[in-house]
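Worked problem 6 (solution included).
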Amino acid sequence: MTLLFLFAAVGIVFFCAYSQTALLTTAIMMSVLTLLKLMFTGVGVLGVVLIIVSATLVLLSQTGLRKQYLSRAIFVWFRSVLPDISQTEQEAIDAGTVWWDGELFSGKPNWNKLLSLPKPSFTEEEQAFLDGPVVELCRMMDNWNINHNLAVIPPKTLQFIKDKGFLGMIIPKEYGGLGFSGMAQSEVLSRISVTGGCISIFIGVPNSLGPGELLIKYGTEEQKDHYLPRLADGTDVPCFALTGPLAGSDATSLPDQGVVCKGEFNGEEVVGIKLNFEKRYITLAPVASVVGLAFQLSDPDHLMGDKDEYGITCALIPRKTKGIRIGRRHKPIGDAFINGPIFGKDVFIPLDYIIGGAEMAGMGWTMLVNCLSVGRCITLPSIGNGMSKQMLMGTSAYAAVRQQFGLPIAKFEGVQKPLARIAGYSYIENAACSHTVQSLSYGEKPSVASAILKYHVTEMARQCLIDAMDIHGGKSIMTGPKNYVADPYSSIPILITVEGANIMTRNLMIFGQGATRSHPYVLKEMQLAKQPVNDHTVAEFDKTFFAHIGFSIGNSVRSFMLAVAGGVLSKNPGHVRLAKHYRDVDRLSASFALIADMSMLSLQSSLKFKEMLSARLGDLLSYLYMASMVLKHYESEGCPDDEYPLVEWSMAHLTSSYQVALDEILQNYPNRFLALKLRWLIFPLGKPFKAPQDSLDTTLANLFTQNTDLRQRYLANVFAENTDVNPAGQANHVFLENDRLQPIFKKIFAAIKAKTITKAIGNQQITLAKDAGVITAAEAKQLMAYDKQLMDIIHVDHFEEKELIRTKPPAKKKAVAKKAAVKKEQTKKAEPE
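Solution. The predicted structure is:
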């Protein structure tokens, strides 16, 4: 009987913790069980334990007593140990909104919130732009010539970009812009990524973090009326100068100074700002006609108000303003995208050059982080997504038609593995980008999700390029117009580095911002801790703190029970085929909420200095987020059967990667005792998740090296026209021709097998088959044409030596040397013997 009561007590604890039952309800349930135990079996050891537990729960459920004798003391202690948060950190925390990341932090994601959202789509106007100007622009691409000869966008192409409104996608229609949704902007950038970084970044940057978005959100009406129409039609080309030699990732430590003073402007003495600055890595700076500038503003003479220091301020300054030196270029790796330094010496500007006017002085960092929370999830992830799709198209086509040892290289498992990775990564990127960007249409500004996309999509794009390089072998390392891998491969570090270097994004931002912004209780507790101790704040803290305690205990039990039960306690909110995957995410979400909570509790203020730990915690959140987007994407597509292998591969990769990251956290956890307890709660039956099976890699490789419906559907939006300036499109054309000509190839293979003809190579094989009557003359002609096209994509470029010599020996140096020699000879003759 005692054993029965013991099981009942444990069952109540687990049930109440798992379901996060109210404290009072739990106290009543335990009290009833205690009374029954005393009635039927007496006190005993178990009875004493139950009395203590029940009494404690009853006392804790009395909110008045709890607040007076417990919560007030905890609140005072909590205020004393809470680490100081700088103003810039606070502004970063406050930026944007909490979206799906908040559900993952809860440990119990509400799938209906995600699955009820509509499928990403475009308006008729946006679709017409994608089918018209975007395709036309792709036809104008000339990557090799731009990157290796011109180093600029050709004038005809540049004018086309301006005339069609590419620079004004973000600008509302009332100001002459296109007023496109974030989804349309993302799709445009993804599709034009094939044109290379010079064009895609030239278009992407003005539509991302820069003067356009800052003016739309914060500009005065006069500033909007003047600049936005000019930015929309390309009359003005903008750049935004934030980074300098002493302020890179730590952008808030700007040394660039602006001092409020009096000066002359348009012939009149006005109150303005004298600027001195040095900026570098500024995209579009060499061609910009208007410069957005971030600087530290001070007012020592109090000409604006009572403050001495205003902090980071943003201003919009015409290029021709006296004192600005601009026009020199950096030379970014692998790409001719336009980037350069800007210098300013005693540059005087009026106060109304401040974006938003003088009243927005000192609000620059708030403006920037709020804009970045949106822009970061569009430009660079979209370009990375497009690059991965292009690599998938070109590499799968090449692997299908390129033969070695008498077989297409796509049949070799060593090629299938990286090819499957390109396909799987591309699918994850596409799902994450499309649904995160679509959330902007619902008014979300997903700052944490944007950081996840910026890091992981660009890193996966980098791996896709590495894999494409490996599969193409020697063809990919010989640069020239035929090579569609080398330039993106060389320039991918640009996407990795700009708009927040990936090493910083992973180590500091994803979990560092998410831990406070997305957690259901931490931010509110921190906000309360800044307020004085009184009855109201104690009451609010009591409510939040004990809800947090219940949340932590609940996730501990939930993590353990879902692990033991294999996730079967979770409901399936979607397609029956995905039930296991939803259960896996539910289980791992509970584990993530548990270890995130324990890390914040045990490490407190030192957590932000444990960057390796923070990075891995961010990885956990990221893998869960991307897995959620994969499931949402598959549901939105109608759960097609042929697409499921991509889902299966993606989920296996993401869950096994999550498991590796979590295992590494526990191996390196500072508190070893807590690490052991967490491992027991999270992995009670061992580590169940496995990386994608070899057979699944082969399936994915086959899906894209054959002309399947999935391949056609998935790559439909990649520019694939068969032109001389689109070598990836040429490869894809040869692949499609190979598929079309398979019945003829099969006749030849059958004849060789029957020994009707002997085996030969290329045109010789075609001639033997035609002469033997195996194929007709018309069929032979088709095969001859195909063989020429095949050899065109197999061949690599070669050059005359004089074409590779970029510069001639400077004539000036020769003339100087000759002049010095003559002078020496004259001096020698003049010397007396």
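Discussion: The chain has a mean pLDDT of 90.
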